[in-house]
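Bug report (template v2)

What were you trying to do?
Predict the complex of my protein with pyridoxal-5'-phosphate.

What happened?
Run completed; filing so the output is reviewed.

Input:
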Amino acid sequence: MDDLQKRTWAEISLPNILHNYRAIRASLPAGCRFLGVVKADAYGHGALPVSKLLQEAGADYLAVSCLDEALELRQGGITMPILILGHTPHEYTETLIRENITQTVSALAKAREYSAAARALGLTLKVHIKLDTGMSRLGFLCAGDYFDRGVENVIASCQLPNLEPEGVYTHFSVSDEDGADNERYTREQFSLFCRVIDAVRDRGGVRFAIRHCANTGAVLHYPEMALDMVRPGLLLYGYGDEAGKLGLKPCMRLVTTVSTIKHYEAGTCISYGRHFVTPRHSRVGVLAIGYADGLLRSLSNRCSFAVAGGFAPQLGNICMDMCMADLTDLPQAQVGSEVEIFGPKNDLNALARAAGTIPYELMCAVSKRVPRVYHNSEFGDRSSEL
Ligand SMILES: *Cc1c(COP(=O)(O)O)cnc(C)c1O
């Protein structure tokens, strides 16, 4: 990157993403397909570069949340199968078909709309049926008293003309959470998923080529639920408390720089709201990152960043474009020094906990103002110096 432009940037290691993809793949049963979740700009890593890498590496499927995200990939030259996880209005059926995009179908009424639209065009739309087994979000209801109706509606959807039901899936709500109750809930979701698939086959003669349910939590904790395809997002990017279990590497390093350094007497108020008062003579750096770059304001006064020589506690309220950090004990840190907000030295999971959120949100928060710089080297070596 042009040194004069150095303010704040996100370094993305493509080799680390490839490493993670291969490591996850190696842990799967033979023949299991791999769908890479690249919604939300590949969790902030850049949907197009990540998708190109996965396409070249031999992944089987990609998933995005909406039509715009799918079209971005098609326009960028991605030819592999793409599944839209969310809703697409039936008015766009022709675009879906012409761009060879697979659409989720989550209710009989929607299946009818897509079928009618495809029929009018004389074309066929590829779909995956989504079952709601306990997430209570999108999907055919099939738990408890809804079982028979759910099975009937799935069969009816699959028998509509001009729809090609290639796959069926469900989504877990607590596969990534510890505890016997969460394990019981996940196993019940899985069992219901399998029972609906069996009933749809037995009562309607419908067989799906691709049954999938395993998100990051299930890939890690329930390998027996891999079925025909796994569907990890977070894990691909090397995050989550247990990513280390598979030897995965974080793929994003959010870096800013020290804009200026000032010395203050004890008793000086720092930033908006005067929520931090220096307890001693302090050497304070102004960092070129704020909440408009994605550094959540809720982290104010509750986090530290990696600088040459150690960790600098963040001081006072985080502003829109800047924040302050204590460099008193870090004399090596100078104007222009790099500061790692998160990455191999400063764990994103810990930062997320400090913010009262999850790593997903912090990755998605890195805003479009922050340039992505793609590396062809691995930076996951935790022992290397900044
Ligand atoms: C986002 C999403 C995933 C990926 O979840 P991770 O926890 O990041 O692995 C998988 N399936 C669906 C339906 C999703 O919406």
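What did the reviewer find?
The longest strand covers residues 252-264. The radius of gyration is 24 Å.
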